Amino acid sequence: MKTSIHRRAIADYPGKQSLLKLATGLILGFCLSSCTNPGVNQAGESSGSQPQVVSTSTIIADLAESIATEEIQLSSILTPGVDPHIYEPVPADSIALENADLILYNGYNLEPELIKLMNAAGVNARKVAVGEVALPLLMEKQAATTADPHVWGDVTNAIAMVNAIRDALSELSPENAAAIAENAANYTATLEELHRWIQGQIATIPPENRRLVTTHDAFQYYAQSYGLKIIGTLIGISTEEQPSAQTVTRLVEDIKRAQVPAIFAETTINPQLIRTVAAEAGVKLAPQELYSDSIGVAGSESDSYIKMMVSNTRAVVEALGGTYTPFVEAQK
Question: Which of 27, 62, 148, 238 has CA 20 to 30 A from 107's CA?
Fold first, then answer.
C-alpha cells in the first residue's frame, strides 16, 4: 500500500517581522516534533521505527508518495502554491531536515535557500538531488550558463526521477524494497501513458500555433519534448528576476510577430504584468493558468503531478486551437 504524505502548513514569510517569523516557526517546529512527527503515532507515543523522508518541492513529494509504502513516513517542506525559487526557510524547516533519514530535493538550484539550509545545518541524512538525474537544458544567464531545473516538464524525466526515488527509498528501507519496486513499476506505466497522451494532444494544435509564451522560463523541457516552440517569457528560469521595460517591450513585439492566439500566466506568479503584455500585444490571455513550480492545492484538478501535467496540456491545447481529449488511465 502507498503511504499518505504529510504536507506541513508552512507559510511563505517574505517581509514579515523577524519576531513573528521566529514565533511562528517555533510553533510549527513544536507541531512537527510532537504532533505530526513521523516518530510519533496517533496515540502520541513514540514509534521511532519508521524511516523519515523529507522532500522539498510538492512535485517531488507527490512522486515519492506515489511509490512509497506505509512503512515510510513522508513529509514535505513546501506546500502547494508556494514558489520554491523564492521560498525563505523558517526554523521548523531546520528541524525537519535535521530529523530526516533521507532528503529528496530537486537540485539544479530550484530551491536555493533550502539547499543552502540543507548544506549549512547539521544534517546527517542522505541527500538525493532527484531532478539532477535528468540531463539538463543549459540556459544563458548574464553571460553564464545555468542548468534549467524544471526537468519534470518532460514526463520521461519524471520517470527517471521516480527511479531515483525508488532506489533511495529501497536503500533506506530494504525490507520494503519489493513493494516499493511494484509501486514504482505501476506508476511508471501510467507516466508512460501520460507521455504518449501529451504527444498526441499537442499534435492536434495547428503547426503554426505550436508556440508558447509564459510568465517565466519553466516550460523548455515540456516544449522540447512535445513539439512546441518557446517564443518568449517575461523572466528567466528563476522567479527572483524582475523584467525590465525593455524586456516587456521586446516580448510584446515578439508576440505580435509570431501571431500566437494566446499567452499564459502561471499559478505561482502574480499575473498582472503578463495581463499587461497580453493587452499591449492584442492577444488573449489563456483562461487557465499553467502550473510551473508546484502542484495544485488538495482537492483541485491539479493536486498531483499527473493531474498538473494534464491540466497544463489541456490549457495549452484549448488556447492554441487544438482538440482536447481527456486523459484516461488504462486499467491495470
Answer: 27
C-alpha cell at 210: 505550436
Q: What residues contact 139, with CB distance under 8 A and at least 6 apart?
A: 145, 146, 147, 148, 217, 220, 236, 237
- Cell 523564492 -> residue: 86
The residue whose grid cell reads 541527500 is: 127
Q: Is 302 exposed, middle or buried (0-12, 13-18, 19+ CB in 10 A)?
A: buried
**129 CB neighbour count, 10 Å cutoff:** 16
Q: How far apart are CA 275 and CA 100, in angstroms?
A: 42
Q: How many CA atoms lie within 13 A of 68 on its CB side?
A: 30
Q: What is the pTM of this model?
A: 0.85
What is each CA distance from 94 to 58, 185, 280, 307, 323, in whole angstroms?
18, 33, 45, 31, 47
CB atoms within 10 A of CB 102: 22
Residue 137 φ then ψ, to 5°: -85, 135
For residue 123 the three cell numbers come to: 544534517
Find all residues with CB under 8 Å of 110, minimum gap 6, and list them.
56, 57, 84, 85, 131, 149, 150, 293
Q: What is the predicted pLDDT for the residue at 42?
A: 27
The neighbouring-strand residues paired with 6 are 75
Average pLDDT over residues 296-304: 95
Comparing 56 with 36, the larger pLDDT belongs to: 56
The cell numbers describing 83, all together, are: 514558489
pLDDT at position 143: 64
